[in-house]
Structure formats: C-alpha cells, structure tokens
From TrEMBL:
PROSITE patterns: MFS. It is found in: Cell membrane. This is Predicted arabinose efflux permease, MFS family. Pfam families: MFS_1. Residues 204-387 form the Major facilitator superfamily (MFS) profile domain. InterPro entries: MFS (IPR011701), MFS_dom (IPR020846), MFS_trans_sf (IPR036259), MFS_YcaD-like (IPR047200). The chain crosses the membrane at residues 37-59, 71-90, 96-117, 129-150, 156-177, 198-218, 238-262, 269-288, 294-317, 326-348, 354-376. It comes from Kaistia soli DSM 19436. Its main location: membrane.
C-alpha cells in the first residue's frame, strides 16, 4: 500500500466534505439575503442532490479515458470556476446554474474518491481505513458550517474562502495523478461497453447495490424525520434536534469499530451483524423514548450501524472487484444510495401521516431486517473474473 498516496486521497476526501458542509448552508442563507422565495431556495438545494444520477452512468468510462487522478482534479477545478462565476456575475440565474454544476461535481467527487481510495488499499487494512475515511468525512462536514460562521454569507469573502480549498484540492489531485498510476487504472480488465456495464454491475453487485439503496433510505429518513418523531413524543425543539445529533455521533464514531471488526473477523459476517443491530436498535426506539438513559445509546447504535452498513458495502466492493469493474460497481453503489436518499423519506413521511410517528422506526427496522435476511442467504461470492 502506498501510504503517501492514501494520505493524499484522505486529504481530498476531507476537503470535499468540508466544502459540502460549507456550501449547503451558504447557498440557503445567501439566497435568503437576496429575498428569494423559500420554494426557490429549496429548488436550489435540490439541484445539488441529484447530480450523481446524471453523471454516474458516464463515470467508469471517464475514469478509464482520463485517469481517476485527472478526473478528480477536474471535479475540484470546475466548482472553483463556478464560485468564480458567482463572484464575477452575481445574477440569480448564475447562482442556480453554478449550484447544479457544483452539486454534480461534488456528487461525482464523493464516488470517485471512494473508488480511488479503495483501489489503493491492500486488503489487510481496507476495513479500518475505509471506516476512518467515513469518520473523517463526518468531522470535516461538521466543520463546514462552522467555517461559514467565520466568513459570513454576504460579500466576496465567503466565495473566495470556498475557492481556496477547491484550488488546493485540484492541485493535490494533479500531483497525485502525476506520481504514478493508481490501483484503479493498473488493471485493464476489458470491461464491456454500454448498457452491458450496468448489467454487469447488477449481476455482480446486486446485493451490494441493495445495501446502498437501503442505507440511503434509512439514513435520510432518520436524519430528516427524527426531529418530527421527537416532537410527536412531547420533546422540545432543542431536545428533538439533539436526537439527530446523537444519531450523527454514532455515524462518526461507531463505523471505525465496525471497520476494525470487519478486518479481524470477516466483512460479510460483520455486515450481516451490523444490519441486524440497525434493525433491532431502530425497532427499540418506541420503547426507549422518554427513557433518557436508554435512549441515547440506542440512537447512537442505530446511527453507527446504519452508517456502518454503507461503509462495509464499500469495503466489500474493494475486496471483490478490481480495475474497471471496481469503478462500475462503485458508481452503481453511489447511484443506488442517492436513489434511496432521494425517494426514501417521502413514502415514510406518508406512512407517518397515515399511521402516526411510530411508522418511522417500524418501517426503517423492517427494511433493515429484510436486508439482513437477504444478506444472510448463502450466495456465490462475486469476483473480478466474472463476465
């Protein structure tokens, strides 16, 4: 394992997360200062969340043609130019166009840096480092809004402050790209072209794509609807918000332990176990609401295992696939997670309207229990040699 390259990629992941956490509140607050209607501000945020569904089908071929390092450098450079366009042409239409471009690039960065890191790791330490990258992402994403608090949302300074790490990310990516080929590019496995690539992703990575889809549903639904769940149980606004904070703390901390266990005791068995714990912890929520001592650890476990299921899916992809197949299945994984995130909270919110607040933990727990049963079935392990 080339430690210096792995360290560089981890820096890129941290930079990407910092900018992601910075850009979401920046655009919302800055557009509010321009007296835009709330629905337009919401539309602007939505433009940032669907990018991977547009660019995902083209990522594997682009990685193969450009090289993953050059592509990552480009994905940092384009948002740099987008912030520059806002700085020079501060028209609302430019803000919307730039947000769509940035959202697309950040979504692609999320997938490509995962692919790049996975391709550089040796299998012995894959789980621990992938899990640590997830914790790093969560910490840097948390720091983004704090940085915005220091820069403010008006004037040119917040735009310049965002452009500095983007320029650094583009430069670092270019340097890493010029220091030799990556693990993604050293194996040319003659991946099939066109639609057959996605048949390959589904045939080899079908269970893993289901892991991603369910993780997207569970994580988005819990983070967005937990405050409403707390309010329905008589909590104050502040206490209901703290439910999300405890859930997110589990996401940041527990995934490291799961990565270590996966390296020591087997990735698939730990994935099945984490899925079961996610189902049980979520199902326990109706019984521990109002029990302060029990509620916090249950929420912590739910957040950590739901995030851990996603992380362990990434680890398994790196274990089972190499070269272009790694890029194809990883991109499918990112698209499946995004699809779950986009559609997950809406049907669960509708179930809450029909059946009450307990529909949130019951539906998420049922989804993860079904996923666990599916994963526990014996199946042939996919390999990089499959066609």
């Amino acid at each position: 394992m080339r430690s210096w390259r792995v360290a560089g990629i981890l820096c890129l992941i941290g930079t990407e997360a910092l900018l992601y956490g910075y850009s979401y509140p920046f655009f919302s607050l800055a557009l509010e200062k321009r007296d835009l209607a709330s629905w337009l501000i919401g539309l602007n945020a939505s433009l940032a969340g669907v990018g991977i569904l547009f660019v995902g089908p083209f990522l594997p071929a682009t990685i193969e043609r450009l090289g993953i390092g050059r592509l990552v450098a480009l994905l940092f450079a384009v948002p740099f130019l987008s912030f520059g366009a806002i700085l020079l042409l501060p028209h609302v239409a430019v803000w919307f166009a730039a947000r769509f471009v940035m959202g697309t690039c950040f979504s692609a960065l999320w997938t490509t840096t995962e692919i790049w890191l996975n391709g550089e790791l040796d299998d012995r330490r894959r789980g621990r480092i992938i899990a640590a990258s997830g914790t790093l992402y969560a910490i840097c994403q948390f720091l983004g809004p704090l940085a915005l608090g220091a820069t403010g949302v008006t004037g040119s300074w917040p735009l310049i402050a965002a452009m500095i790490p983007l320029a650094a990310g583009a430069l670092l990516s270019a340097v890493l790209s010029n220091r030799g080929s990556s693990g993604v590019e050293t194996e040319h496995d003659a991946a099939p072209e066109g639609i057959s690539q996605w048949r390959l992703a589904l045939s080899l990575g079908g269970p893993i794509l289901l892991v991603a889809f369910m993780s997207g549903i569970g994580e988005t639904a819990m983070q967005s609807l937990l405050p409403l769940y707390g309010l329905a149980h008589g909590l104050s606004d502040a206490a209901a918000s703290r439910l999300v904070a405890t859930f997110a703390l589990g996401e940041a901390v527990l995934v490291v332990a799961l990565g270590w266990l996966a390296d020591r005791h087997g990735r698939r068995i730990v994935l099945v176990g984490a899925t079961l714990i996610a189902a049980v912890a979520t199902a326990l929520l109706p019984f521990v609401m109002g029990e302060g001592i029990a509620l916090q650890p249950v929420l912590f476990m739910a957040g950590g295992t739901i995030a851990g299921v996603y992380t362990l899916g990434i680890v398994l992809i790196g274990q089972d696939f190499r070269g272009q197949r790694l890029a194809i299945v990883s991109t499918g994984f990112g698209m499946a997670y995004s699809a779950g995130s986009v559609i997950g909270a809406t049907p669960i919110g509708y179930l809450i309207d029909l059946f009450g607040a307990e529909a949130l933990p019951v539906s998420v727990a049922a989804g993860f229990l079904a996923l666990m049963a599916f994963l526990a079935k014996p199946s042939r392990r996919p390999s990089n040699e499959d066609v």
